[in-house]
Fold this sequence. Notes:
This protein is of the alpha/beta class. Helices cover 32% and strands 22% of the residues. The protein has 2 domains: 7-515, Rossmann fold; 538-658, ANL, C-terminal domain (GMP Synthetase, Chain A, domain 3, 2-Layer Sandwich), CATH 3.30.300.30. Strand 28 (557-567) and strand 29 (571-580) form a beta hairpin.
Amino acid sequence: MGQAPTIESVLQEERLFAPPAELAAGARIGSMEAYRALCAKAEADPDGFWGDLAREQLHWFEPFHTVLDWSNPPFAKWFEGGTTNLSFNCLDRHLEGPRADKLALIWEGEPGDSRTFTYRQLHTEVCKAANALKALGIGKGDLVALYMPMIPEAAIAMLACARIGAVHSVVFGGFSAQSVADRILDCGAKLVITSDGGYRRGAIVPLKKNVDEALTLKDAEGELLAKSVTSVLVVRRTGHEVHFQEERDFWWHRELDYVDAVCPPAKLDSEAPLFILYTSGSTGKPKGILHTTAGYLLGAKMTHSRVFDVRDEDVYWCTADVGWVTGHSYIVYGPLANGTTCVMYEGAPNWPEPDRFWRIIEKYRVTILYTAPTAIRAFMKWGDQWVKKHDLSSLRLLGSVGEPINPEAWMWYYTVVGGKRCPIVDTWWQTETGAIMISPLPGATPLKPGTATLPFYGIQPEVVDDAGNPVPKGTSGKLVVRKPWPSMLRGIWGDPARFKQTYWSEVKGSYFTGDGCRQDKDGYFWIVGRIDDVLNVAGHRIGTAEVEGALVSHPSVAEAAVVGRPDELKGQALVCFVTLKSGQVATAELKATLRNHVGREIGPVAKPDDIRFADALPKTRSGKIMRRLLKQVACGLEIKGDTTTLEDLTVLAKLAAED
């Protein structure tokens, strides 16, 4: 692929931030020598390495006899013969010792209400919810769709499904009724768990109403899309009036009142399906990514423990939504398996004011914060004053997830939020990988702003060319993973051919991540962005993430999104949507300045063909920029596709009107 690194990234490669001595001294992995020894052990004997970890980290009802069966790639089977239960590993294991009465969840609602659950209390609620599911006819292998706000019952429902061997599929609470129906159709869910509503920026999101609509939608032949659903279980959150259909709809609190508080965990095969999570596909049809029990839990538990160097006294906050894989792995399963105290927040980061996150950190003395670069750039735009109003001295570690973090945002996060004392673990992973794959270890890895640094031990990524051959250091290529790992996806639900084609056909024998990447001279991995976000401009491959990073490095720019549009001469032209910092004025002169700035940072070929100033960029409610829609705006096309996940629909209307 041959893409040259930016001037900015070369400079950052020379800028190392060593682990704080105090943190390294007490860390589980406190040196690069210890990290390299683990990598060497995993490479020399992968089965022995993963087998020892699985026996050490997980509770087994029956031991496994085979660590990995890779006889029919890409269909892996991990820890064959073993039986376990994910809910047991997250809850019951903690009840015999001092963690039984330790806080498991600290929940804050957007209006300011709050609840807490110890591990003992959470265990009781999960057992009651599991018995309620069984009373509604749900058993091992049945599919349950969850469409919920960020409330404790979302985590309780997930753990209850895992306890009885039901397979859950969480649908993000910002999706439309059509999206809910499409996912139910694909997975065949028997039960939907939802809420009357949830809060978002002071308004009620009508979740139950959306479910009611989803259950009435039909296909072109007049068949109900969600005809598999027999029951709907509804959590009362907002208290507003909702429609109830007799013999189909049930209140959560009433059903839990009728059942016993004891529910023995099902003894499940290590490869028993745990959840399906839908992610976007290039064809437009969502892919149902399947994860199974033991391997997924081992990956989530190990990476949470080591990447965040979690200690018993930590108060940990992952700001993601449970509708995404980050919420599955690093709000619910990984942290609870480690006996961690987790903060969970329902609402928006700027409601009622832009300091809501900092208020929560100060209130609960949060020690570890794990959030997205999009959120970090929004905080930058809103201004340092909102951060400085609060005492954030409890923080000892910061994390980044969801997309590559540009070096300027990294430095702001490190300096303003972390006070130059908190390492940043910039994590790369995917829905498909189940757990973190590339990340610093805070007690061992010297940090460089903008790079996820090195692989987690036992993971073997490589940067290759189109033929699958390793490329030289400093050269961009395709990021692949050479060997199977326990938390890897087991398939696309109901479509093994698509699973093979999407992930295993690009580079023979390897998992293709879909991301572009390069390694620097120290072997650190710099994620360029999705391959389909690597544009071919006059024969040069230019990563949109790099152009965005160059734009955001200019002092006038708060946020940027870069897309391509067809160009008769160049093949593709660069179109940049730019949001300015407060007090900056959009002018023709500034456009020219920014074009030249990008040219200096990357090279003349990367100068944007078009820069469009925007008050805001179209984002999902989880904070991701919807580049698909920006591409349509850039090409002057009619906006098509689902826009129901947009945080603010007026943003798109303004951009289209200005086109």
